[in-house]
Amino acid sequence: MIRSFKLPETEKQPVVGLVLIGAKADRGWNESHYDGLSSACDVYGCVLRVREHVPEDERALNHAVEELISEGVNAIYLTSFGYGQYVDRIAKQHPHVAFFSISGKGKEKNCTTYFSRLYQARYLAGIVAGSESRTGVLGYVTATPNAQANRSINAYALGMRVANPKARLIVRFVNSWDNEEEERASVALLASRGADVITYHEDMPHAVREAEELGLLSTGYDSVYEQYSERFLTAALYDWTMVYRRVLGDYLSGRTNTSRNYWLDIAEGGVKLYPLSPLVQPWTSALMKREEKRIMTNWDVFSGLIRDNKGNIRCREGERISDHELFTGMDWFVEGVEIYE
């Protein structure tokens, strides 16, 4: 029997908890989650409790969760990928609290997953970047090789090669979600390899700031809180406000259950593309819009013939890579991706 995580009927005002790996006012990943859930709480009349700077460590996460529960929290949102490795053990200890994790992990009856198909917007941004690059070499700064990061890299590269079939994407891992020195240094290293368009998958836009200083083109990720030059071509964005309104609303009305994992797409408003820079050529915009229309009509980025960067076929004509593989199993890279050594 599927068990719902409906709010206890005795609760007069729902109390919601949010766990962040960084600061709620970081102008990046953490702030976008805070803003999104705060907005949803305002709509539904919930109280929001927040714990900031919680590392991806079981003891620290346990402590944050215990504190939130002691403050009357009914549902807790875990917003960093690494929290997922501990979510089952923590949820089992607190069966009357609902846990929402972005990791794709969690099998306990009071756990579910929520996320957005950012890879769709990444694919579109890759088209823009691949078309506007003059060298045919693009640079990508990212934290660590997990399914979430790899999925975004692959989607960006697939888009890049729609625009330029010979383009290359050089990826550098820095093994941290927020290391300004390493991320800025990575941009310079990628530029030395010929990259003239830079993007990133980190909590903060350090890579874009460095690209701006070096006069390179760039595309963004997650959210845009800063003003950049026209060399900032576009960005693949989450709409966390929409996501949290949907997920929190379902919880409050009793529609959430263990079989219902949320992965909202571009048609549902879960992700979007930032307005294109005036520097983007008309034919680039037309190509991007053509592909966006395909996605909106239920075509998937990870379908049709796809080879990895070692020549192996990963998807055949008429096939589509499963959501399970995309969310938890993508440990390979598509054709055109090179890992910086």
Keywords:
2 domains; Rossmann fold; 10 helices; 7-stranded mixed sheet; 37% helix; 341 residues; alpha/beta
In a few lines, what is going on in this structure?
With 341 residues, the chain is an alpha/beta fold. The protein has helices spanning 29-44, 58-70, 87-93, 118-132, 147-163, 180-192, 206-214, 240-252, 282-296, 323-329, and strands at residues 15-19, 47-51, 75-78, 98-101, 111-116, 137-142, 168-173, 197-201, 217-222, 232-238, 262-264, 271-273, 306-307, 313-315, 337-339.
Can you offer a commentary on this structure?
This protein is an alpha/beta fold and 341 residues long. The chain has 2 domains: 15-117 and 240-264, 3-Layer(aba) Sandwich (Rossmann fold), CATH 3.40.50; 118-237 and 271-339, Response regulator (Rossmann fold), CATH 3.40.50. The chain contains 10 helices and 15 strands. The strands form 3 sheets. A 7-stranded mixed beta sheet has the order 12-10-9-8-6-7-15, sandwiched between helices. It has a 6-stranded parallel beta sheet with strand order 2-1-3-4-5-11, sandwiched between helices. Strands 13-14 form a two-stranded antiparallel sheet. Helix 5 links the parallel strand 6 (137-142) and strand 7. Helix 1 packs across helix 8, helix 4 runs parallel beside helix 5 (147-163) and helix 4 (118-132) packs antiparallel against helix 9. The longest helix has 17 residues, at 147-163.
